[in-house]
Amino acid sequence: MFTQLDPALPVFVEGKGKGLALAVIDYGPEHNLIWVTAIDSSGEIWCAPNPRVRMQANWTMGRKRSAPEMAHLSKANDACNCAEQDVLMRL
């Protein structure tokens, strides 16, 4: 079953980064859900298995960054060493 998400959900895909989940594919009980996601940084569309997808942090809702998202931001911070990344790491 293919379900288009309306609205799209902001997610973090391990190994790819932040993006918007546009749809979910459900192949049934023997398979992971597949998240059809547009990655923010590259514009690529990836179909990511459920265990690699996390909701993005949301300060208002009290949802903190996941460990993979923190590691991703840490690598980005090392690469650019910019003040904006330092602020993002503290959220």
The helix/strand order is EEEEEHH
**Range of strand content:** 35-45%
Question: Count the helices. How many?
Answer: 2
State the end-to-end distance: 36 Å
Class by SSE composition: alpha+beta
Number of domains: 1
How does the overall form come out from the CA principal axes? globular
- Summarize the biggest pleated sheet: 5 strands, antiparallel
Q: Would you mind describing this structure in some detail?
A:
With 91 residues, the protein is of the alpha+beta class. It has one domain. The protein has 2 helices and 5 strands; from the N terminus they run E-E-E-E-E-H-H. A 5-stranded antiparallel sheet has the order 4-3-2-1-5, with helices on one face. The longest helix has 14 residues, at 67-80. The protein is globular, with a radius of gyration of 14 Å. Residues 85-91 have low confidence and may be disordered.
Summarize the structure.
24% of the residues lie in helices and 38% in strands. It is α+β, with helices and mostly antiparallel strands and 91 residues long.
